[in-house]
Amino acid sequence: MSDVGIDYDASTAPSPVGVTVRLQFSGTTLSAILESVDTFIITLTPSGNIAETIISAVGWPIAQTLGIALPPLAKGLIEGHSFPIMTIAPQEVAVEGVEVTLTPANLTASNFGGSLKVSGTLALS
Amino acid sequence: MSDLLVGMSEGALNKWLSGIYSKPAAQSKVFKGSMSVSGQTVSWDIGAAPTATLAGPSDPIWDNWPKSLTHNGTPQGSAAPPDAADNPVAITFTNFSGSVSGSGGSGAGGTAPQVIVYATAQLQATSVSIVPLSAWLDESAVPAWSQLTLNAIIGAALSQAQLLLGAIHTPQISYGGVTFGAAALTAADHKVGIAANLQGKPAAPAPAAGDLPGDEFYVVLSREALQRVADIGMQQLNGQSASKSGSYDAGIFKASYSGRVTLDRASATPQADPTQMAANVVVSASASAGVDIFGGIIGGLTDTGEAIGKGFEAAGDAISGAFDNY
User: Fold this and answer.
1) CA distances from B268 to B132, B133, B228 (A)
2) Contact call for residues A31 and A85 (beta carbons, < 8 A)
3) For chain A, how many helices (H) and strands (E)?
4) Across residues B157-168, what is the average pLDDT?
5) Cβ contact A88–B284 (<8 Å)
6) H-helix or E-strand spanning residue B25
């Protein structure tokens, strides 16, 4: 038996890949969640010298197989990734040992003159 | 505008004061007390939740400023009230009762319908510092109070106002690893707000009252600050990779292959409406295969040879069988 190595040139189109982001509250944390990845393709082309190229013709089916398998792998890495934008901790205020906890509630995000505003009410306990 | 603005409305502040007042433990610790003055004991009791007014001297609540008494009982008179830059605050105590016990004045009690404390607010590190200036009450409503009682009540009102509002801290908010510099406070127009710029930038000035939102509670992040948060959050994607490997059998050849995708230059950008973000990621791929092409051919030839051999065997058996018939 004799193994012949084939390398592939890979290209992604479009590049960069677009991702839809959604801002979402979870409790008092506002996070950005990478929700969905725009459709993209990865094209693999056998590369190398002439002999390798001839041999690599047999590698086209592999290129097609990987071309189909790789985009979902990338999507799996991206989709669902999230990062916190802000977390507002409940505030405990004590006066002479008497504590009141202020917890933000009913939070919403809005456009405040081009800045991001998170506003809501304060619940006491 | 600054990179960060955090604040609350006067209504929210008063909700908090009301919350403190509603705690049974606070009734005895915060809203009731006594002090010994010249051999007498002056007791006081605040009959309702206090309210704060976050407004400057143009607000009617400041009308009694000239008649208000300082800690030592001196009226403010013609002294100028604090200006807007000092963050003037008025705290109103309702139904402020006082009574005296001890030699010489026992039972000389009464209830002032209102005691208004005039103060200024400053931000020191993460705490709001209240500087009480003077307090006013309608003395005609408490004719039984001696000057000693009056001064004691004024003193109690000033100290309790400082105690209550001085307990307020800036909220603990984290911004995905982004930090901000020194903060500046504004209390005006019935709102309070704290401004700060991103760490490393010049300190933010006190926000203009007109720039403060009217919400009960709010946090405003500038586009630049939001971008900084997004940059940190997206960094975690860079360099992440996943791979796929397998084998392929096409009869004439067999191959094993592997492919990998790697993420790079992941970025997210706030849109014109910053509640919307768009993200981009560069996806790079690499792949290789090892093809066993001759193994496949030899394997095929071996199969063919075996078939031919079996054909000869079958032919030999047939000829041998034919001679057996003779």
Assistant:
1) 48, 50, 10
2) yes
3) 2, 8
4) 89
5) no
6) helix B24-29
Distances (CA, A) of B240 to A8, B277, B278, B288: 21, 21, 20, 19
> The tokens 């030899």 sit on which residue?
B298
Shortest distance, CA B15 to any CA of chain A (angstroms): 8
Identify which of A94, A90, A105 has the alpha carbon closest to the alpha carbon of residue B172.
A90
B210/A109 Cα distance (integer angstroms): 20
Do the strands A115-124 and A98-112 form a parallel or antiparallel pair, or are they unpaired? Answer: antiparallel
| Spatial distance between the Cα atoms of B248 and B85, rounded to a whole number of angstroms | 77
| Confidence at residue B105, expressed as pLDDT on a 0 to 100 scale | 53
Residue B60: Cβ within 10 Å count = 9
**Residue B311 in contact with partner chain A when CB distance is under 8 A:** no
Q: What is the pLDDT of residues A40-67, one digit of tens each?
A: 999 998 886 656 655 656 678 888 899 9
Q: For residue A72, give every residue at least 6 positions away whose Cβ sits within 8 Å of its Cβ, in sequence order, or none.
A: none
Contact A93/B289, CB-based, under 8 Å? no
Give the position of tokens 């906890």: A101
Whether a cis peptide bond, with omega within 30° of 0, leads into A14 is yes
Measuring CA to CA, which residue among A88, A87, A92 is closest to residue A125? Answer: A92
The continuous run of DSSP H or E covering B3 comes out as: none
By residue count, chain B amounts to 326
Instruction: Report which of B203, B190, B249 is spatially closest to residue B9, judged by C-alpha positions.
Output: B190
**Three-state DSSP state, A50:** helix
The reported pTM is 0.85
In the chain, the amino acid numbered B241 is S
Q: How far is B32 from chain A (nearest CA, A)?
A: 12
Residues B285/A10, Cβ–Cβ less than 8 Å: yes
Q: For Cα atoms B56, B60, B63, give the angle at the middle one, nearest 5 degrees.
A: 90
**Both structure tokens of B26:** 């606070």
Contact A115 B220 (CB under 8 A): yes
Give percent above pLDDT 90 in chain B: 65
The token pair at A96 is 């002479």
- E strands in B171-232: 173-174, 180-188, 191-198, 217-221
Q: Which residues neighbour B312 within 8 Å (Cβ) at sequence distance 6 or greater?
A: none
The more confident residue out of B315 and B75 is B75
